[in-house]
Amino acid sequence: MSESAASAGPSVRVSVVVCVYTEDRWEDILAAVSSVRDQSRPALETLLVVDHNPVLLDRLTRQYKAVAGVRVLPNAGPRGLSAGRNTGIAASRGEVVAFLDDDAVAERDWLARFAAAYDDPRVMAVGGRTEPVWASGRRPDWFPDEFDWVVGCSYRGLPPGLIRVRNILGGNASFRRTAFGLAGGFATGIGRDGDKRPLGGEETELCIRLTRARPDAILLVDDRAVVHHKVPEAREHFAYFRTRTYAEGLSKALVARSVGAGKGLESERRYATRVLPAGVVRGLRDQLLARRGGARRAGAILAGALTAAGGYVVGGVRARRDGTTFAVVRIDPPPGTDREAAP
């Protein structure tokens, strides 16, 4: 472990929440938990929150019954990722709550990197870098790395190093426990809710709500806090790419309705006007240099941008027509603990 990781603030206890929903990811879940248990800076606890799947709940309860530091809980709210995370937060005992996807594994210093950043009391959230692990063994030559967010990973255009951001990505994230007392939990009605459409955006909405509740809050991404996220074969195809980019547009419309288009699209404007055009140019240049997939990458960037824009328009119309609202739950400390003082 590096000196900077080893010097992380020893007083900050970190609870890790892993939300799970299907037995199809059994081996992935075990690998995710194992990576948390192997951290150079131990977690206070690992909370496995099972999303309305009694069979999986029973199986995981038996698997970890005798394992210290691992608790298995049913989702106490409606079906979906937001309610599952809220269940984990409510049950957590750490001063910091970290989130790891059920099909990802964390590098050994992941929690140490997170914990070090919380030495500054103004820091309310810290995210990391998520690297794709392609089922085929390599990135499809048409798949632009500007769109790695489609498969839940960090994408080209994010500045390197330890940087201040508007929002962090939920599959590799941490929040100070008091953040949820200030802003509430993840909003239900945004993000994945158990249906087949790959929605998102709940992390963005929470982060914007948090900085409104506490204007001096600092949100960071440290690209040394690394997790490796599996990309199944089905997500390596253009059909999923198109579906996910459209769903992202729908999600961004909901975020904008919740927090306003100014903040809701602040980062997206820079991405659309700087990162994506540069990616198109790069792809066309690669094509001229006879590098494989250049033209297809440029075309995928254009298609992804247009599909997301179409989803945003449709999502905005639907939200206004249906009067879409969002539920933000209050999250209190678990019974038997003292309410944590705000930093």
Helical content (DSSP H or I, runs of 4+): 40-55%
Which geometry do the CA atoms define? globular
Strand content range:
15-25%
Number of strands: 9
- Poorly predicted regions are 1-9, 337-343
Decide which structural class fits the backbone.
Answer: alpha/beta
Helices and strands, in N-to-C order?
HEHEHEHEEHEEEHHEHHHH
Distance linking N and C termini: 28 Å
Description:
By secondary structure, the protein is an alpha/beta fold. It has helices spanning 3-6, 26-37, 54-63, 81-91, 110-117, 177-183, 202-213, 238-259, 261-264, 266-288, 294-322; strands at residues 14-20, 45-50, 70-74, 96-100, 104-106, 123-134, 162-164, 172-176, 218-231. Strands 1, 2, 3, 4, 5, 6, 7, 8 and 9 form a 9-stranded mixed beta sheet that branches. Helix 2 links the parallel strand 1 (14-20) and strand 2. The longest helix has 29 residues, at 294-322. The radius of gyration is 20 Å and the shape is globular. The two termini are 28 Å apart. Residues 1-9 and 337-343 have low confidence and may be disordered.
Write the layout of secondary structure elements.
Elements lengths: L2 H4 L7 E7 L5 H12 L7 E6 L3 H10 L6 E5 L6 H11 L4 E5 L3 E3 L3 H8 L5 E12 L27 E3 L7 E5 H7 L18 H12 L4 E14 L6 H22 L1 H4 L1 H23 L5 H29 L21
Parallel strand pairs: 1-2, 1-4, 2-3, 6-9
Antiparallel strand pairs: 4-8, 5-9, 6-8, 7-9
